[in-house]
Amino acid sequence: MVDASRVAITGLQVFQRALATTSNNVANVGTEGYTRQRVDITTRPSQRFGDGFFGSGARVSSVQRIEDQFLNARVQSSSSDVARLDSYLSLVNRVENLVSGSQGGLDSALQNFFNSLQDLSNDPASIPARQVVLSNSDTLVARFKDLDASYNDINREINTRLRGDINDINSLTSGIADLNKAIVEAKATTSGQGVPNDLVDQRNVLVGRLSERLAVNTVELSDGSINVFVGGGESVVIGSLSRQLSAINDPANPGELRVGIEVGSSAFDITDKITGGSVSGLLDFRSEQLGEIRNQTGRLALVLANEFNAQHQAGLDVNGSLGAQFFASSTPQTLANQNNTGAATVTTGITDFNQLTTSDYELSYDGANYTLTRLSDGVSTSAVAGPFNIDGIQVDIAGAAAAGDSFLVQPTRNGASGIGVLLTNTSQIAAASPVRSLESTANLGSAVVTTPEVLDVNNADLFDTVEIRFNSPASTFDIVNVTDGATIAAGVAYTNNADIDFNGIRVQIQNQPEAGDVFTIERNTGGVGDNTNAVALLGLQTAQTVGGNATLQEGYGALVSKIGTVSRQTSISSQTQQALFDQAVQARDNVSGVNLDEEAVDLVRYQQAYQAAAQVISTSNILFDTFLAAVRR
After folding, report:
1. Where exactly are the structural domains of the chain?
2. CA 429 → CA 119, 128, 425, 534, distances in Å?
3. How many DSSP H helices and E strands does the chain contain?
4. CA distances, 187 to each of 18, 108, 202 (Å)
5. Helix, strand, or coil here: 10?
6. Rounded mean pLDDT of the chain?
7. What pTM was estimated for this model as a whole?
């Protein structure tokens, strides 16, 4: 009977622990990261009595966390993907609102600017019309500058958020290392048999939060600790030790931060190895979108300034002077890598604005050859020395470079910030042509001369009076500089509507001239009402000046369309990934989460078992008392 009591007592102890574990599950139903626990009950070794073996009760062999490592890994991976897309999408939406908004975008400002040029061409002498042109040009320039300032703000925000995420990562890895130490120490007190489940749950919560910052891989060791790896194999936690990440300046582009990991007293750059998490979202947006968007906007500003200036300088202002530069413009930016050891200097100029791309370039030197690489697609050109001519730019090299030196070439990066309006007075707007063409009233033929086109405003003889005189027969003509009496060309064969070039000017004569007909090209004195150059300036609205295949407004429309497409695609990907994450969490919780209905069933089951064990003890006591009473008689 004594043996029966002992067996029942083991049952009481077992079911008491089972009830406690179930109660703990219920109490932690709302605790973040809590994993459902289960008591594993096994039989005690049986004992031999006489010719047989009798059971000696039950014992608790372990308290297990109910989990599926595969499902945990799915949740962790999906969490990284969701965080990356959320971070990426928030920045894409910011830029989309900037470029497509009526208040901050360029489209309406460009249209208003060209509308004012249309009004000026209709009434070139109108001071109010000229004032509107200046006002709208100021507005257009302000839009360019505001956009670039906003891009800079976003870049600074990315740097700030990177620092914040890196600080969080360091705090989390330090916490994981501390918990590793506590788990190993706790497990050692049970000779390696028991596991401090609550500490493991706390560590898993930190790993989950870490995976929201960047993708991680974990490896569990036999002592209960885990090693954590990021960036394709870089360890950030090894047992009870953690390695710190840091925000480091990009030596090639100091305005951008990169991610480094401590190696001794220095930091090793792992930026290009990072995947997943909010850090990856920030870095990917900056490299895939922000740089190109800034370059696209800058290219538009550069093309506008160059094309408009060239045409404006081919006109005549109210004061009778050749047009000045209308817009200020920036020059390409070239940055020497801060780790360079050589003495070379690199300068970049633009040779053809129509060929400009939206890419940056890297010039590197290996000790024998220079290589210029277009970073957008990796296409490269190598040579022993410069200059390099590619995509409308010329890269010149002076001085001696050292092996390993590199330079970042950004032809259009500062275009939007560098544009400005140089004119200060309406009289400076060159709406008229500097020269005009006249037909002699004595002409007998039906020929007419076109409005002169200025090819070279710097030609010293531009304003000289020139006559085109038809000989007899009228199949040839002479070109005579009336100002100095010199014959520019004699006996030129006449072809209807053919180009006739002289003194930086081009005209055409159309129809049939007669012998003695004279056509005069002279300075456009008093041509305030002439709209020739205003019409030419307005023509830039439809000229394919961007990349040789798009107008200014089409170029900007392509920018808006591209970022809109990226926004939609990223939004769809984000929604899809969120759904996958929710499914992964649900699958994990089905295994590891606390189900109150199941726990209620377990409570009843263990309670009944506990009561049964207690009844066994009570019965054993009654029988034992009966036995003692019988012996006393």
Report:
1. 2-66+593-632, 72-292+550-585, 293-421, 435-523
2. 13, 12, 8, 9
3. 11, 30
4. 21, 69, 15
5. helix
6. 92
7. 0.87
